[in-house]
Each structure stands twice: as structure tokens, then as C-alpha cells.
Design goal:
Structural class: alpha/beta
Strand content: 25-35%
CATH superfamily: Vaccinia Virus protein VP39
Order of helices and strands: EEHEHEHEHEHHEHEEEEH
Helix content: 25-40%
Distance between the termini: 30 Å
Radius of gyration: 17 Å
CATH topology: Rossmann fold
Strand order of the largest sheet: 5-4-3-6-7-9-8-10-11
Number of domains: 1
Length: 240
Amino acid sequence: MANNYFRFKQFVIQQDRCAMKVGTDGTLLGAWVSAGDCRNILDVGTGAGLIALMLAQRNPEAAIDAVDIDTDACSQAKENVAGSPFAGRIHVVHASFADYASTTTSTYDLIVSNPPYFVRSLKNPDMQRRIARHADTLPLEELMEKGRRLLSPDGRMAFILPADREQELRALACGKGLHIVRQTDVVPVSGGAAKRLLVELSASPTASIEKDTLSIEKAHGEYSQAYIALTKDFYLKMEE
């Protein structure tokens, strides 16, 4: 059974009422995304608030809106935010992204999401987990289309997705007037195939894509130095 909480260096994530627990994907995205120059950030599908809290830790000047469709997740995210050092800078909103995007007057320097990504798999009978896991509740196309309208002129969108959705991502981005400007292929163990894709997109193309590969482990049971460096400010167990 998963723990009811996950302790990071500067905050604690209570997660007993959330369908999706703290995992590597969310932590990777929160640690990897370019957030240093952002003043207004939107976390779509915040769950228990992990990415919003990570970005608040990384950028002390940022104001962060965190949106989720699930009532229990929003309640738990609010509690996690209130118990953190960043309570004054994170605003949790209970709404679908479609509703939020159609009513907000805000624009964002960064829109970040660890979206539900199961497309063709058997759906979980538990409604809360189905909403959190399956893409029909927040299709990537909708996320990109509505998110683009909320971007500031130099704003970026950032996602973590299964590596096998790269071609779909590129096709959707092209259709929505977005360009991949940064990409990291995530490999579980050095020398293996990529399993996850970290991407940043912008409405303005760049001369070249900033692209690299991150191995989580350099050998089974041994974290790579790059992964340690990326996550050491958050994970209690990580020290260089």
C-alpha cells in the first residue's frame, strides 16, 4: 500500500485522498522545467499539488495557479499548500481545465502539466483513478489548444508524456501553432530505450531544439549523477 504522505526536503505531500500518488513523472517535470524567469505559472491537473509546490520552491518570485477537476484532490492540494512555506503564492482552483480556460483573464509565462495519458488501455473501474489516469478527461489536443490561448507572448507549455506519443505530440503541436523548443528523453537505465518524454513548447520557434537524454539509473539500483543533480533539492535521499 502506498504511503499516505511523501516527505520532501521543504514540504510534505499528503495524498490519502488523491487517486494518483507522488511518482517519478511529476517529480521529474517539476525539477526539469524551465521556471526561473516565470512570474505567473499554471499547473493543470495539480493532483495533491506536487508540481505547484516544487515550482514555488524553485522560483520564489512566482505566483502559481493550480487547477484540478477532482474535488478530493483539490481539497488535499489546498491542505498541502497551506502546510508549506509557499502558502501565499499558490492558489488552488477546483475546475475542469476547459471551464478554467474559458473564464480566467490571466495569462501565464509557463503552463505545466503531468497529464493523464492512458488512451487505449483498459479503464480503471474506480472513477477517481479513471479521471486521473485516462486521457479522455483531459485530451492532449485540448490541453495544447486551450493552453496556447493562455500563454503570455514569450510563454511556454511543458509536459511529461510516454515516449511513444512523440509523433502525436509533434503533429498536434504543428496544428496548434506550437514548436518544441526543449526536449529530454528519459531512460530508466543507461543504454536502454526512452520511456518518458519531457518537452517544452512555445508559440515562437527557436533556431534549434535544446535536446538531450537523461538516464535515471546508470546501472540497476544506482542513480545517475544527472538524476541526483536534478532531484537533490527535493528528495530527502538524494545528496551529491
